[in-house]
Design brief:
The chain contains five helices and no strands. With 80 residues, it is mainly α. Helix 2 packs across helix 3 and helix 2 crosses helix 4. The mean pLDDT is 93. Keywords: DNA-binding, Transcription, Transcription regulation.
Length: 80
């Protein structure tokens, strides 16, 4: 399940950036114009987001969009 691992690692990366910025899921959702449950789904690896939502998240987190995609595919995310 490479896809599931990728989504999980991406979600963990988004969460790390969000926490580093000091934002709650609710704050990030409001800044990005997305629903909090959508943010939660991303962070849990349950959402395969669109390019436009990636750009919204990048703007809300005040980082370049490419930084959101710069995560280690070999990282141990605790899943098998």
């Amino acid at each position: 399940m490479q896809e599931a691992k990728t989504l999980s690692l991406f979600g963990a990366h988004i969460k790390r950036i969000r926490v580093t910025k000091g934002y709650s899921q609710e704050q990030l959702a409001a800044f990005a114009g997305l629903d909090r449950t959508y943010i939660s789904g991303i962070e849990r690896g349950q959402r395969n987001i669109s390019l436009m939502n990636l750009v919204k998240l990048a703007k809300a987190l005040e980082v370049p969009a490419k930084q959101l995609l710069d995560f280690d595919m070999d990282e141990d995310d605790g899943q098998q």
